């Protein structure tokens, strides 16, 4: 299967991928586009500007389009960046319609998106310098994109909750392994 973890920053996506990698040794992990771009020399603004999120969206789409193997765990998917773009202060400059055909096509290569929402009690402490309001807005936008599917993207979504062990068990159960 091709599985992507989705959620705003600091909700435990990367930790979940690491833990699932131990449970699913036949799977390989693909790092999130931000880190891949950074390794390739891309310098993102702090905080990221609209173009930074567009570049991450492009890279995420490329990963899904280029990677044709099975048994892959992706850290993030194009919908993550759509969530950030739609909530960005400069979102008026972003035309979602221009991207939907390519996003739909790339998402069809995924078998499952695991949505990791913000929980009532955060599992990862948010540093004081980070914008908690923006994080909540992105989380709400991702829930809308993934669970309400307003753009009729048709991706299968599993929303996970609870401790790390509980989240792993939820994914393994969905995969028929638990």
Automatic annotation (TrEMBL):
Residues 2-160 form the NadR/Ttd14 AAA domain. InterPro entries: NadR/Ttd14_AAA_dom, P-loop_NTPase. Gene3D superfamilies: P-loop containing nucleotide triphosphate hydrolases (3.40.50.300). This is NadR/Ttd14 AAA domain-containing protein.
């Amino acid at each position: 299967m091709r599985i992507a973890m989705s959620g705003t920053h600091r909700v435990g996506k990367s930790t979940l991928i690491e833990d699932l990698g131990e449970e699913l040794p036949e799977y390989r992990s693909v790092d999130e586009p931000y880190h891949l771009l950074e390794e390739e020399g891309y310098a993102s603004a702090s905080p990221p500007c609209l173009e930074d999120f567009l570049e991450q969206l492009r890279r995420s789409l490329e990963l899904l389009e280029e990677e044709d193997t099975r048994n892959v765990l992706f850290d993030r998917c194009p919908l993550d960046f759509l969530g950030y773009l739609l909530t960005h202060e400069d979102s008026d400059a972003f035309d979602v319609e221009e991207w939907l055909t390519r996003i739909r096509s790339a998402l069809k290569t995924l078998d499952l998106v695991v949505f990791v929402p913000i929980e009532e009690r955060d599992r990862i402490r948010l540093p004081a310098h980070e914008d908690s309001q923006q994080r909540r807005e992105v989380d709400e936008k991702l829930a809308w994109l993934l669970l309400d599917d307003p753009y009729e993207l048709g991706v299968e979504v599993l929303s996970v909750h609870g401790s790390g062990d509980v989240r792993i068990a939820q994914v393994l159960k969905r995969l028929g392994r638990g």
